[in-house]
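Fig. S4 source data, part A: sequence.
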Amino acid sequence: MSSPAQSQFSPRTAIVTASDSGIGKATAVALAQAGMDIGITWHSDQQGGEETAEEVRALGRQAFVAQLDTTDLEGCGDVIDSLAEQLGGVDVFVNNAGTGDNAPVLEMTLEQWRHTVSADLDGAFVCIQRAARRMVAAGRGGRIIGITSVHEHQPRVGSGAYDAAKHGLGGLLKTAAIELGQHQITVNAVAPGEIATPMTGQTDEDPTGTERPGIPLGRPGDAWEIASVVAFLASPAASYVTGASWPVDGGMLQMGPHGGSHIESNAWREG
């Protein structure tokens, strides 16, 4: 039995950025499984985007595909608008696109800094704003979900630009949650830990056999484990969840800011 608040929102359309592989692809398919038509974007892997579309269509849903470069601040919002037009609206927007230039603060170039912050924060703002405006105009409520990182919450050596961008994105999402609540639009973050995807050098592999002593659950995560949380936040069941950030990290954040894949021993478990 659903509550009246839940029944008021019934998502039919979703846009998932960077859905050509990894977390984005798994999320696009999970939302299609939940009954949504999907807007799919790719940055450099067009074939990957088309393969995601094939999986969505195999589930009986519509899929539309477009190239998206979130460092193109003049053009990236237009891509979101175009996909929304093709879909007939956007009930759910998942901001998944991002990148990272790693270098110590003393050595990072301004070009590296601007590339990461532009892609992960400036472009995210443009795309989220475009999606939110359409949701407000439609008057049906909506869901905005930003894929951040455990580094939204904890820094890591050598990741100054990435940490700053993800901290900033988390703040943007919280502010948007406050402002958009009156329109029955919820805004949340999902903060992955180490996930077996191409971004972490693991090509969508099964993570269960990979040992990670520095993560309490002892392994990396799977993209589907992120997608399932996103699918919940996009659903009517999450009608009273907004302004939250959901770490999906196997307990990594409980290890402090330097827990993670570089820890090679289980000695810490012995106290």
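Fig. S4 source data, part B ends here. The beta strands are 13-16, 37-42, 63-67, 92-95, 142-147, 185-192, 245-248.
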